[in-house]
Amino acid sequence: MIQVTLPTHLRTLAQVTGPVALLVEEPVTQRAILDALEAAYPMLRGTIRDTVTKERRPFIRYFACGEDLSHEPADATVPVEVAEGKQPFRIIGALAGG
Domains in the chain, please, with CATH? Predict the structure, then answer.
């Protein structure tokens, strides 16, 4: 099982209170995790990535094992610790301003 943490506004939308556990088939990639997340929580479709292009939305970032995976290819495998469920795949709402 993969553990996915969501920012507060997406947890509220998905009506969950903590990390989400998902069964993801191998190879475990960002795309596979997000596909499983959107299948389990259809209300999240379009909030994390574009519904047509499947590109990450601006101000959304992906982290795992202390690394920013946001600019990695969607089909690149995630770290082994995430694939084994030992570390979460984190979806973060980025901040900007000046």
Answer: 2-93 (3.10.20.30)
